[in-house]
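Example: AA9 family lytic polysaccharide monooxygenase.
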Amino acid sequence: MRRLIVQEAARSAAASPSPSKRPSSDPEPICPKPARRGRQRLQIAPTPKRIGCFGYSSPRATPDCLLWYHHLPFPFEPALPKPAKLRLCDARVLPIPRLAAGLTPERLLAATTNAHAIFQRVSVNGQDQGLTVGVRTPTSNNPLQNVQDQNFACNSGFQSPISSTVINVPAGAKVGAQYQHVIGGPQFSGDPDNPIAASHKGPVIVYLARVDNAATANTSGLKWFKIYEEGLNNGKWGVDTLLQNNGWATFTMPPCVASGQYLMRVEVIALHGAGSQGQAQFYMSCAQINVTGGGSKTGQTVSFPGAYSANDPGILISIYGSSGQPDNGGKTYSIPGPPVLTC
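Written out as structure tokens, the predicted fold is:
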């Protein structure tokens, strides 16, 4: 990952900039200059009726900015039909990948965002089980983006030692799964991207896979069925619920699910850059649970990897409507995977 200074300015201009060079009318940077050699500058350049801000967790209020970067052909514009309101933004240091010519708007939005999250805590009927207790918690908050990744079931690179706890969950119990920006909570005081960036709109999904011993089970070859999902309802995404509840997704363990030990796979799919193939972001890990007092049912099972395709309509999708809002244009959103188990 390279680090660069994002320099942000917003103003109108009388004419479109020439594609061959940076316009001489660009304003002087309003933000601090890079202090070290080797850093590059990403600047907003003027364009008629198109003003915006490219912030810490892009896109912020509006993603319709014109960006100038010397590795990119100029102009490069994530085009949206409605102009943004004039505003000034702060400079922020962001870790981002090296950019290359031909980068799409969705890929740029995904690349310049470092507002990831980790599932790391479980509650049962309101009782917090403790930080990383009973959870195979990855130390990195980076997403997986290849749906064929061999670690797509429960992720990898877990905190060591992995918890040996298997959490007892009565069938019918209220279960909570908490995401935070990094293990333990915010990355720093006032972290605006805890539990996850508001830009990372998408569904929250929970699966179970039956195992003999949840503390030691290998994830290879497991069969998963879905017990919960929250996608897009009346303009509100599953991720919005996380934001409103300090990272908690709360759901009911189906009362009819068969008793026994399971891995519980909790997943957020961030769709802010998903208009290009391979740019949806998957944040998942697994808790180790023992369901008690249950019935005998399981749902339709799938495998990970294998359950999702990179071209699935809920994975390869631009969620921005004509107004520039992440509302999927008012259309129904198709959550990936099988149907939820019904009792």
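Residues 118-330 form a domain with the Coagulation Factor XIII; Chain A, domain 1 fold (CATH 2.70.50.70).
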